[in-house]
Amino acid sequence: MPKHSTRPSAHSAASNGDLFPASDAEEPKSLTELNKIITAAKPMVPGGKKAVLGEGPAGAALAFVGEQPGDLEDLQGRPFVGPAGQLLDKALTAAGIDRKASYVTNAVKHFKHEERGKRRIHQKPTMGEVKRYRWWLLKELGFVHPRLVVALGATAAAALEGAPVAIGKSRGKYQFGDMPGFVTIHPSAMLRMPDHDARSQAFADFVRDLKAARKLAH
Questions:
Q1: Segments of the chain assigned E as strands
Q2: Residue 63's beta-bridge partner residues?
Q3: Which GO molecular function, any one, fits this protein according to its record (predicted)?
Q4: What b/e string do you get for 8-41 counting C-beta neighbours within 10 Å, with b at 16 or more?
């Protein structure tokens, strides 16, 4: 099983100067301080306007990391409140996981999209964009300090790993550097499945993954 350091390299830090403090004295000392920095920073993806912060208690047993906020998340300022979030909530309930006792966030903190008329169309973040947000994510999880971090989809897994992760090959228990983790699909993947039977099977598999993650965390 691959094990990679989740600590950003000096090269990556230097290439993202506005993300990284010039001195240790400027580093955020708490999640509240980090969130203030994220909120005040300029979006680093096209279309992004305001940051959507993670939510949940520090010390949560489980932390769930998604790709990025969507349209409704951007409008409401909360993670996973749109269709994918509703599906996640349904699966969490089926798996016996209390969302309010868990921490939920995204690898990319702004909604990357392009406007087509009155519609805002989701755009997948590039690996370069994911890496620009990575320092924030790792600091965030460092403050929350979950027992297990669950990567929801390839973008989240890549953000945690610092390199692309193949979901099909890596699904299940996974070690993100020094963070115990678990890799599964993003709920939005099920929403894109046109076949009802395929969606039903995918949901059952997703719930099974969440149950396995819950067991590992406890």
A1: 62-66, 103-106, 113-116, 119-122, 148-152, 172-176, 179-184
A2: 103, 149
A3: 4 iron, 4 sulfur cluster binding
A4: beeebeeebeebeeeeeeeebeebeebbebbeee
DSSP state of 189: H
- What is the C-alpha to C-alpha distance for residues 214 and 198, in angstroms, rounded to an integer? 24
Residues of the chain below pLDDT 70 = 1-25
Each residue's pLDDT tens digit, 37-66: 999 999 999 888 899 999 999 999 999 999
Q: Are strands 119-122 and 172-176 parallel, antiparallel or unpaired?
A: unpaired
CA distance 189 to 34: 30
Neighbours of 104 (CB within 10 A): 25
d(CA 113, CA 119): 10
pTM: 0.88
**3-state class (DSSP) for residue 40:** helix
CATH number of 10-217: 3.40.470.10
